[in-house]
Amino acid sequence: MFVLAAPFSGASRLTARLAGHPALYALPELCLFMADTVGELLDIFRLSQGPHADGLLRAVAQLEFGVQADPEIEAATQWLAQRREWTVGALLDELARRVAPRRLVIPDTETPLRPNDLRRLRRHAPTAVAVQVVRHPWTQAQRLVRWGHDRLFIPPDFKDHAWDPPLIEPQVPWLRANRNIEQRYADAPQRLHRVSDESLDDAPSATLTALCRWLELPDDAATLDAMHADEAAWAYGGHGPRRAPYGLEAEVLEMPPARERGEPAAEASLEAVLPWRPDGAGFDAGVIALARRYGYR
Amino acid sequence: MIDEVAGALTEADFRLTCDSGFGDGWNHYAHSMAWFRGKLYVGTSRASMAALRLSTPTPRMFPWPILAPDDLYDIDRRAQIWAYTPETDTWERVFRAPTVAGTNNRDVPSYIGLRGMAVYQDAGDRAPCLYVTTWSPHTAHSPDLLRSEDGLHFAPVPRPPFAPTVRAFRTLQPFQQRVHISPTASGTAQGFQQDISSEAVVYANADLRTDQWVAVSEEGFGNPDNVTVFEMAEYDGHLYGGTINPVTGGELWKTRGGDMPYRWEPVITHGAGRGPLNEAAATICAFKGALYVAFGIINGGYHRGAKVGPAAAEITRVWPDGQWDLLVGDARTTDQGLKVPLSGYGPGFDSMFNGYVWRMCVHDGWLYAGTLNWTNTMPYLPIGFWPEDVLALVQRWGSDHLLARYGGAELWRTHDGVHWEPVTRSGFGNKFNWGFRTLASTPHGLFVGSANPFAPNVAVKRDGRWCYVDNPRGGCEVWLGSTADRVDGRSAA
Hints:
The complex is a heterodimer.
Chain A: E1 2-5, H1 11-18, E2 24-26, H2 38-47, H3 54-65, H4 70-81, H5 88-99, E3 103-108, H6 115-124, E4 130-134, H7 137-148, E5 159-160, E6 167-168, H8 171-184, E7 192-196, H9 197-202, H10 204-214, H11 221-227, H12 250-253, H13 258-261, H14 285-293
Parallel strand pairs in A: 1-3, 1-4, 2-3, 4-7
Antiparallel strand pairs in A: 5-6
Helix pairs in contact in A: 3-4
Chain B: E1 14-18, E2 27-36, E3 39-46, H1 48-52, E4 80-85, E5 90-96, E6 99-101, E7 107-109, E8 113-120, E9 129-135, E10 145-148, E11 155-157, E12 166-175, E13 178-188, E14 191-193, E15 203-205, E16 214-215, E17 228-235, E18 238-244, E19 252-255, E20 264-268, H2 270-273, E21 280-287, E22 290-296, H3 298-301, E23 314-318, E24 324-328, E25 332-334, E26 337-339, H4 347-350, E27 354-363, E28 366-373, H5 388-397, H6 399-406, E29 411-414, E30 420-424, E31 435-442, E32 445-451, E33 457-462, E34 465-470, E35 478-481
Antiparallel strand pairs in B: 1-35, 2-3, 3-4, 4-5, 6-7, 8-9, 9-10, 10-11, 12-13, 13-14, 13-15, 15-16, 17-18, 18-19, 19-20, 21-22, 22-23, 23-24, 25-26, 27-28, 28-29, 29-30, 31-32, 32-35, 33-34
């Protein structure tokens, strides 16, 4: 099962909840579908300016070597290098075998940005289902802008290039990811379940119950209690070791929890003037239309 | 390959039909291509890299990638046409440009390049003929439109009333029983520009036996910043023209035709919201109900004379109502709202080296796009002056690794405009193929002609010193891609 979302839309947060379900095993972001083979993936990781490899290294270290520490991260690096010829699908199968009979849950905010990567996901994980997490574009934008405020490197995918220099514009990944997810699953709507991030705050039990039922998993009270447990209980819930510290979205690892952010949902509005834009513009019409379909106002 | 889809050509489906510039390395560009009477015709441009040294401003490369005589006219630059017969797998030279008495008191070639071909039956033609657009040096006459009935004999038809500074035209677009052309290059004794013309006008002629050429557009479609009408295409009952505009960005205009001169209306302006980084509509192609327009910057992605770039190419597609999609490129707000790249690829298919998409072509239900890629000029460029972040990127990749794996033109394909996959990212394994300039869909497969100006020799560094050595992989190449010969059991649909 994949938890697909635009960046800063709550994929890591929902995955942390699912990690508490006894029938599931939740991993960090693996960024598997940038390539077809493990070798190509390792090449991309090597060239990447971001910590794209961290989640996979942490997962392999934990599942193959029993602990996430720097020596095991090195062992995971070697383990992957020895499997360069594997397809990413074969790697996924191996990880699934390790956690069986529990089912894998993998958050992913990279794959939705690119149609080819989503197509790879469907090809290499043909039986997987997906949960699309959506968040009000205002809230998503606030968090992305805050995260990007003092960053030296912001992916060009997150920018409006009509400006010189390009302007950080959260609508770009929001629109790209959500549109791509919808289009990729248009031929298999029964394989896609949509969850709003806000519902995890407003009606957490009902949201998780509905999700469990869609997944045909137990949803008894004890199970739901486990899903509400402290994220620290999740093996990947915090930073990893020095050699692979990341693997989850920055809003989980680096930003304060929602209740401390001072971003009440009531502020979120599709009619708002966007403070990160010098031109005083509001949300794009395409973003507004899609957000309204998701129930946002 | 992400998904196996019938008819999709892969790199393994291509074979080389000719190399080394048809045996003459000075045939640098396979510059035009057409399927005519059961044969493939390829027109060449000669000694392009040698001439580039005389362009204005001169590209900053040291050493110059090839060793050429100081006097350009010491090179035989008579452009050639070659014909390929698939049944015998043989090439034959069917035309070589004549020489004329030049204004420099020497014999000079009538044509140094043949930049466009089209098969068309004009009012006076008994059958479809092969028409060829030409590039003439400034010491010769104005460029001609050549006509051939049989693929063996070529003769000029009456030419448009070009100003003496017009040196070439490339696109030839039939529309409503008229032929349309537009000047593309200019030159004088002070230098030349291979893409920007001294006129930005579309000419039409309904009977090529006559000199009744009529300017059917205003200069620059009324915008003085449109310095050239670079490409044309017919789509949805309209004639489309794309411009070079180094000031505000390339534009796309369309007309319903009819009485001359035509009424034109803008479809895309301001480089589709990217400004001069989308300086030129470099190639235009109709595919599955939309018009695909690839934008780029002339001179390989860096127009130094106008201080535009460097930047990589974008691909858009236009619908009949004027709405357009960004397929490959940078997300941005536009006058049509927020556009995000539907393919997920940034400019140049995520490669800053793909300066432009040079040619697009539909074959067997797929759209193919060939790029110009300047990776292999890196050894000659003053990269010490590059921005630090770009240098860091190159160092991270490793220049040797870049050259070995991506040091050549790229060919991409799509069946829906959204999902693009590479056919080759290394010039079919030859880093000297810096561009795929020509594509032609034929009953025998997809032909791909390269621009490969690293011949007949190339500068290499040995023991820390530059020297020139013969280059057997220099000179244009023509590749043929077909699923017919697959032996691995895959569908040949």
